[in-house]
Design brief:
The complex is a heterodimer of chains A (about 290) and B (about 350).
Chain A (H helix, E strand, L loop, with lengths): L1 H31 L6 H18 L4 H24 L7 H23 L4 E2 L9 E3 L2 E3 L1 H23 L1 H11 L1 H6 L4 H24 L3 E2 L6 H12 L6 H24 L7 H12 L14
Antiparallel strand pairs in A: 1-4, 2-3
Helix pairs in contact in A: 1-5, 1-6, 1-8, 1-9, 1-10, 2-3, 2-4, 2-8, 3-8, 5-6, 9-10, 9-11
Chain B lengths: L10 H4 L6 H20 L2 H26 L7 H19 L3 H23 L5 H20 L2 H4 L5 E2 L3 E3 L2 E3 L2 H24 L1 H11 L1 H6 L4 H27 L1 E2 L6 H14 L4 H28 L6 H21 L3 H14 L6
Antiparallel strand pairs in B: 1-4, 2-3
Helix pairs in contact in B: 3-8, 3-9, 3-11, 3-12, 3-13, 4-5, 4-6, 4-11, 5-11, 8-9, 8-11, 9-11, 12-13, 12-14, 13-14
Classes of the chains: A mainly alpha (about 290), B mainly alpha (about 350).
């Protein structure tokens, strides 16, 4: 029984980590109507920035973390300026393909710059798990989960309640309409990518803390994808619920179903949930329903 | 575009693929050149041509699905994989002739593609791209986790060579002719499909699916058909691949390969069969250059080792996709069309 509870708690916390990475997808989508396939690559670039500032430059964590976040924001801004500004008002296909191009471009660049070597990642959150009675809670995931919830509540409030957040929401509706209402689409997209890159870097810190860093870690981007779709691409608050559900489903499958069938069902379960939700309710749990008119 | 005053006077003339004598001559010359290629070029070039022919089949399928019907498909490599696995299992277990296994591979891939085409009936845009990515993951999962006696698991499957009337298709030259014949049939078929009622329905759905529905086109069926046809081509290409490499493994059909195919049709030009062929040519040439130059560079920057080819390929292809989307979204074919219309109507401006 205690194992079951432990699995559920760990699963939920991993789900919250997915939700944090997925928040990158959603924030970029909510403010620019671009679905960023290269989210996993942003995570890995964030990881390398953190590694560079702490391990290479030897800064203390209190200095390197803010510096990394600033650098990550700059990277996000640079990507937006180079690739995305020129596509404002273009078709969905162009946007999707540019981010798919970015996905392999960034992966290649990371590989060219840093090579395939395995690197130690700094220990940012304490490694010692938290014991509550018999329950064992991984500390980094717990802190990460708290950060996720704070970020979700904050960003959710920003997008739904503040004036500038609502402007970005208009951009996500339609670039042309938004710009004809006097909203700067450029600014909105730039903001989206900066926040997206910063969220990815935070995700990288939680995910990699005390582990090793290779370019393969970018797979978390694809692991987070089902969470973003399950919640619905426009809902930030919904990510928490979706992340927890998918995390628990994955954890339970890995621990109870996989030993029976001797396979890695756990890694596919999120995708099966994603396919099911896309078929039953394409907009996800809390996404917007759009009505099409001719 | 023809000069003003010249226009077809019958549907038959309007639908013609080969419109002028010069085109017929160019086509004939090209066919002769291809048939003589094994005698003209070295084995290395024939091997590259083989890769191009196989990629051409797959890219033409993707062109129909994405370029004509507008359904984003990032799972083409998975569909190709289904075809390759079907052909290799049939060939190695039942010993069927390749005349049967290649079409059967196409049909099984088409069935798999049709499943994902059904989702396209409900969702569109990047949501669709996501489900095709899911196809990619599910394919991997199925191969690696089903009992290894079925699909070979992570060991892959060895494929017996194709054989017809006692002639074994081994070696570059024999395979070249086999690939050339199959690719020619498939490309000719593609020209037929896109000029037919189905092809026109694809274009209508691509341009505006709501409007197409109002005009009486069954939008859901058209989208599913697009996937079916695209996946059929991928399956046939996969079967050819299996017979050429003589070994299939799950690593040959990843998301990256799917992206390579998409890069081909983007570079060539969306919505044009010839464009897909041009894209295949350009991308495969780039790949070949990197594969040749890469190891030399790898010696000077040794810490990268063998990964430089993969990394360089990714950087260049990613850059090419992004650049084309930003600068020339209509692809090389569009440039060629501009050139063509200008020399056709010369010396008049229009």
């Amino acid at each position: 029984m205690i194992y079951l509870i432990n699995d559920i708690i760990t699963g939920a916390l991993i789900g919250l980590l997915y939700a944090l990475v997925a928040m990158g997808f959603v924030v970029i989508y909510r403010a620019s109507k671009v679905f960023n396939f290269a989210q996993g690559e942003l995570v890995i670039i964030g990881g390398f920035i953190v590694w560079f500032t702490t391990m290479q430059m030897g800064l203390s964590l209190w200095l390197s973390i803010p510096l990394s976040l600033v650098l990550a924001g700059l990277v996000g801004y640079a990507i937006e300026r180079i690739f995305l500004t020129k596509l404002i008002g273009e078709s969905v296909f162009s946007m999707v393909m540019v981010t798919v191009g970015l996905l392999i471009l960034l992966r290649g660049l990371v590989l060219l710059l840093f090579g395939p070597a395995v690197r130690p990642f700094p220990i940012i959150f304490p490694l010692k798990p938290l014991f509550l009675g018999d329950m064992l809670i991984p500390m980094n995931l717990l802190i990460g989960g708290i950060i996720t919830i704070i970020a979700a509540v904050g960003l959710s409030w920003f997008f739904n309640r503040t004036r500038s957040g609502l402007r970005m929401t208009a951009v996500a509706e339609d670039h042309l309409v938004a710009s004809s209402m006097g909203i700067s689409v450029k600014e909105s997209i730039a903001f989206a990518w900066i926040v997206g890159a910063i969220l990815s870097t935070i995700g990288a810190m939680i995910f990699l803390s005390g582990k090793s860093l290779t370019f393969l870690a970018s797979d978390i981007g694809f692991a987070a994808l089902p969470v973003a779709l399950f919640a619905g691409l426009e809902s930030i608050g919904g990510l928490i619920l979706a992340g927890v559900i998918i995390g628990i489903a994955q954890s339970l499958t890995t621990n109870y179903l996989d030993p029976l069938i001797g396979g890695s069902m756990g890694s596919v379960v999120p995708y099966i949930i994603m396919l099911a939700i896309l078929l039953i309710r394409p907009t996800g749990l809390f996404g917007w329903r759009t009505i099409e008119r001719v | 575009m023809d000069p003003s005053g010249i226009f077809p006077t019958s549907y038959r003339a309007d639908r013609r693929v080969v419109r002028t004598r010069w085109q017929l001559l160019a086509l004939a010359l090209f066919a002769v050149l291809m048939l003589l290629a094994p005698y003209l070029f070295s084995g290395r070039i024939i091997a590259v041509l083989n890769m191009m022919l196989i990629s051409a089949v797959i890219a033409v399928g993707l062109q129909i699905c994405t370029g004509y019907a507008g359904q984003i498909n990032l799972g083409q490599a998975a569909f190709m994989g289904v075809g390759a696995y079907t052909a290799s299992i049939l060939a190695s277990k039942t010993g069927l002739t390749f005349l049967l296994t290649i079409p059967l591979a196409g049909f099984s891939a088409a069935a798999f593609g049709f499943l994902f085409g059904l989702t396209a009936a409900r969702i569109k845009g990047f949501y669709l791209a996501l489900t095709t990515i899911a196809a990619q993951f599910i394919f991997h999962f199925a191969i690696l986790n089903l009992p290894s006696t079925w699909m070979g698991g992570s060991n892959g499957i060895t494929v017996p060579p194709a054989e017809l009337f006692g002639v074994r298709f081994v070696g570059e030259t024999a395979q070249f002719y086999m690939n050339f014949v199959v690719a020619s049939i498939m490309v000719a078929g593609a020209f037929g499909i896109v000029r037919s009622r189905f092809g026109r329905a694809f274009v209508a759905v691509r341009d505006d699916d709501v409007a197409a529905g109002i005009m009486g086109i069954n939008v859901a069926a058209t989208k599913a058909n697009a996937f079916l046809i695209g996946a059929f081509y991928a399956g046939v290409g996969g079967a050819l691949w299996a017979y050429m490499i003589r070994f299939v493994g799950v690593d040959q059909f990843t998301l990256f390969h799917s992206i390579f195919f998409v890069a081909m049709i983007i570079v060539g030009g969306m919505g044009s069969i010839v464009g897909a062929l041009i894209g295949v040519f350009v991308i495969r040439i780039i790949q070949e250059i990197i594969a040749t130059v890469g190891p030399n560079i790898a010696e000077s920057v040794s810490f990268l080792g063998g990964d430089i080819v993969f990394a360089g390929m990714n950087v260049i292809l990613g850059g090419v996709i992004a650049l084309f989307m930003i600068l020339e979204p209509k692809g090389l074919m569009h440039r060629w069309n501009i050139l063509k219309s200008s020399y056709r109507i010369w010396p008049f401006p229009y």
